[in-house]
């Protein structure tokens, strides 16, 4: 390779062949977290012989999940391989980070700040990633879909498109059986759920500033029609608000299914096609 790879700890590796795509696990020291930041990385077929810079998708896991979920349960590698082979998405890097705080600066860790200030610069200085907005897309499931919406609304200058699969974006409070009620991100010192903290960190706190800004981020939103958390309803509410703001740059899909991996695996191809349709193709030769 013609670029320098920073020293990091490799904690696992899955490969489909000597010159095929790979899924590997890494971590680096996060200054914001004061702890290692783990992530799983998909690299496309031919990556090791390429001198190009690639678009990057940041793909977020759900509540109490990990950086391994999309690769181990979501058929990420097989899906990306097929879409690239069919020419439906460009060869790309797919970063699947880990976090413990619903992708917010919650009461247990500053996950949102670490994502923006540590992870993005680390990826773009360590791997041959396109470093401009046109090279970054983001997506996630459930709490990761919630994180996707928040990141897009707070940082529309950083992402060219987003995909929120069954996003846990309850406009008021989460339903009683949502894991948000017991998640450390929202628990106060007495370990009680903080309604104030939830409302402070949820997307209604950011949507007005997003709509008042100049940057528009195309969004794909979906939900299962039998979602136990009524996310079809909340997703439709968000879609309607965005449809008035960006009528030709938001899509909603209500599909058959519950809040489950079958929904997320089945809709990941369409979500990836959507976000990458707005992204840059791999670029030029890397600087020496």
From TrEMBL:
Phylogenetic classification of the source organism: Bacteria, Pseudomonadati, Pseudomonadota, Gammaproteobacteria, Oceanospirillales
First and last residue of the signal peptide: 1-20
Pfam name, any one: Esterase
Keyword Disulfide bond: no
UniProt keywords, alphabetically: Signal
Name of the protein in its database record: Esterase family protein
PANTHER family linked: DIACYLGLYCEROL ACYLTRANSFERASE_MYCOLYLTRANSFERASE AG85A, ENTEROCHELIN ESTERASE-RELATED
Superkingdom in the source lineage: Bacteria
């Amino acid at each position: 390779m013609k670029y320098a790879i920073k020293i990091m700890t490799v904690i696992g590796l899955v490969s489909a062949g000597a010159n095929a795509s790979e899924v590997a696990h890494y971590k680096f020291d996060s200054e914001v977290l004061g702890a290692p930041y783990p992530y799983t990385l998909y690299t496309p077929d031919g990556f090791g012989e390429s001198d190009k810079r690639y678009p990057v998708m940041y793909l977020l896991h759900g509540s109490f999940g990990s950086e391994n979920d999309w690769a181990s349960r979501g058929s990420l590698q097989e899906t990306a391989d097929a879409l690239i082979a069919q020419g439906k998405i460009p060869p790309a890097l797919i970063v699947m980070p880990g976090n413990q705080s619903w992708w917010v600066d919650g009461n247990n860790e500053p996950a949102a700040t670490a994502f923006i200030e540590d992870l993005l610069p680390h990826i773009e200085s360590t791997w041959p990633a396109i470093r401009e907005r046109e090279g970054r897309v983001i997506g996630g499931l459930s709490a990761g879909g919630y994180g996707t919406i928040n990141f897009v609304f707070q940082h529309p200058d950083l992402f060219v498109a987003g995909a929120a699969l069954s996003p846990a974006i309850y406009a008021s409070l989460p339903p009683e059986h949502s894991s948000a009620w017991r998640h450390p991100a929202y628990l106060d010192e007495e370990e009680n759920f903080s309604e104030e903290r939830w409302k402070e960190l949820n997307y209604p706190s950011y949507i007005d500033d997003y709509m008042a800004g100049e940057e528009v981020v195309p969004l794909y939103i979906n939900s299962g029609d039998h979602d136990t958390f009524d996310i079809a309803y909340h997703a439709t509410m968000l879609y309607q608000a965005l449809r008035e703001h960006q009528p030709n740059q938001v899509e909603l899909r209500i599909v058959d299914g519950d809040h489950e991996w079958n929904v997320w695996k089945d809709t990941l191809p369409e979500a990836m096609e959507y976000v990458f349709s707005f992204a840059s193709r791999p670029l030029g030769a890397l600087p020496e």
